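## tool: complex_structure
## caller: assistant
## args:
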Amino acid sequence: NFMLTQPHSVSEFPGKTVTISCTRSSGSIANNYVQWYQQRPGSSPTAVIYEDNQRPSGVPDRFSGSIDSSSNSASLTISGLKTEDEADYYCQSYDGSNRVFGGGTKLTVL
Amino acid sequence: QVQLVQSGAEVKKPGASVKVSCKASGYTFSDYYMNWVRQAPGQGLEWMGMINPRGASTTYAQKFQGRVTMTRDTSTSTVYMELRSLTSEDTAVYYCARPSNSGWYDYWGQGTLVTVSS
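## result:
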């Protein structure tokens, strides 16, 4: 089994851009799609990025995803930060039938 | 519209079992797998396993093998997750989550808090 490692927390000011990384411990990040989920306190998670860089309907284009094979990592970038973006963010991928979540990153909008 | 409605909060003693339900509506129940994901207080998301409602085949995370059973009732479009031999480490919110055709979770239940305490 592989692990997905995320920074514990990130913070940035409104209007700025923040990037959250997600590094895969073994196996190529490019071999299996990466998803990103946003979770606000007391709520169920919701997807903001699927299949590495696709946005579900209703997710603003301020959210974007990418992968970098050289660092075996995925990234979630949020531009034009808003206070409503303050939440926990989880990356998720898979290997065969096994699904794995990253440990989560708490985004604070200062 | 798609809805996943879970059963209510449970309080269990160590060593007991819990069975959480997830009733699906708004789509063809047998066409989509159902996954279970849990979240301990202040912790991250943890995938537990999944069930194919069409044939009831299951895949469980290695961590839960032998302690979890996922079943379904096609007549009521409901899936169940039973976890046995509970310890305080199993105190968590348990979510059912439906993956889309491309695999990402597009619908989640509201979560069921299971508290294990003596």
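## assistant note: Chain A touches chain B through 23 residues (CB under 8 Å). The two ends of chain A are 36 Å apart (CA to CA). Handing back to user.
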